[in-house]
Amino acid sequence: MCPRMIFDEETFETISKFFENNLNVSETSRQLFIHRNTLVYRLDKLDRATGLDLRVFDDAITFQIALMVVKYSEVHGAFGIFKEQKRKDRMSWEKKKRNIRRR
Question: For residue range 60-72, what is the model confidence (pLDDT) as tens digits?
């Protein structure tokens, strides 16, 4: 699932800008052309939705890693690690079906 599908466009833009500005609230609000309190409200809303306060460095890192996992899984299917095993299982199942038909 694309991060843009998880969040509305405004929230995604806010998050992106906030990370671009190294978690600086004042600079982010200036670049987004919004009042500082509006940005704080959006961050609080995100905190309530995810349980992560992006103004806290550890939470911001956790959030970034979660976004990376979502992007990775989007590119590589359902977590690429399992993709190969799924393919092997499917091949094994096809082989069993052929053997049953031959009998």
Answer: 999 999 888 888 8
